[in-house]
Amino acid sequence: MFILAHNIRSLHNVGSIFRSAEVFAVDKLFLTGYTGVPPQKEIAKTALGSEDRVVWEKAEDIFSLIEKLRAEGYAIVGLETGENVKSITELPSDRPVALVLGNEVTGIEHDVREKLDFLTEIPMPGHKKSLNVSVAAGIAMFVLSRKKW
Fold this sequence. Notes:
alpha/beta; 7 strands
């Protein structure tokens, strides 16, 4: 499983994503757009050393990265809420997943969404229907990692 963290503005969220990526054995974490990269104390504060154990790469152009990963056989899936979105529990497991995470406020940009194979969401029976991006990322990594077990 690959994670593409795109335009994540909070370095604390970036650190938390690193930490979950390490726990759930993500193969590679791509930091795209203006997402911050290690070493930075704000990332280290929540990553707790996992930024040194997770394979990661800064990728400036998310569009080129998406096309490269698709050519390698990855399903390019955006984690987002909205209409016509599949539950993450219903994702097919016939090919590896590259999961795209979007900005904390605006989500995945429209032009990036157009390049995705499909969108997925975490079922949320509560009223708010919104999770912090790093919390949502951790839940998604857990669900997707179970498909490997």
